[in-house]
Amino acid sequence: MAEWKKLRVLGEGSYGTVYLVLLRSIEEQKPKISLLALKTSSSYSMLREKKVFELLRGCEGIVQCYYYKCIVERGYLSYNLFMEYAPHGSLGNLIKTKLLSDKEVIVYTQMLLKGLSCMHEKGIVHCDLKPDNILLFPSWDDRTKYQLKISDFGLSKTSEEANADLGEIKFRGTPYYMSPESVRGFKETPLDIWSLGCIVIEMSTGLQQWWNIQTSDQLLCKLAFFNEAPKIPDELSYDCKDFLKKCFINDPQQRWTAKMLLDHPFIQKEYPTSLPTYNPSN
Q: Model confidence over 45-74: pLDDT tens digits?
């Protein structure tokens, strides 16, 4: 590591502040200047997030963390994560500015499934997957303008931590993207799949699922006591609606995995493989 300079604030949250920074370093005896995103916080939870980033190093569809630095700033310990900078903002901002085409929704969903598949294979549950935590990078795929990468692992859990607070009924992430089992304390990989289904609806319609729910308590009741799923819009294609049904299966043990969903016809339209023919009764 070398010197860095904070240029501006990119975002703020309960788990820290993210800055755009200019990093000056020396590599192979040559000076190098990079634009990176710096997440800084005095919270000890940043050490856990650092561990998660280390486990996810090299994963496709995941924002990468390049450096970690702990410093004393104004008399307090400051934990700093230096990550890839996303020059095009977040998926949340994109959804607010334009209605995505059907092809874009498929391509972006496939990118997210790639990231989730790698994450889940390594025993990581994101626990707060939503459009604002998905960042946009220049695309290598000529089918779309952006490459999507999952970010912000402040609430993520490893398999050992997943069900540490069972029993109390409450939201353990952003309410509109939480699954019925998660509000009862079960935070395993099926939660991220439910959240993905909510994101697909939002990408397809421009509207949040549960948009007609007035209070978070009302939503909590629907999830915890009635096991309700978001309404799947009628105007979506047959394949998209079937894909969403797999994401919203009430029993988390029966809910499809990211790897299974990559083989669904909704995704196979743009990314065909030589896998066996899909049976919708499965």
A: 888 899 999 999 999 999 999 999 998 877
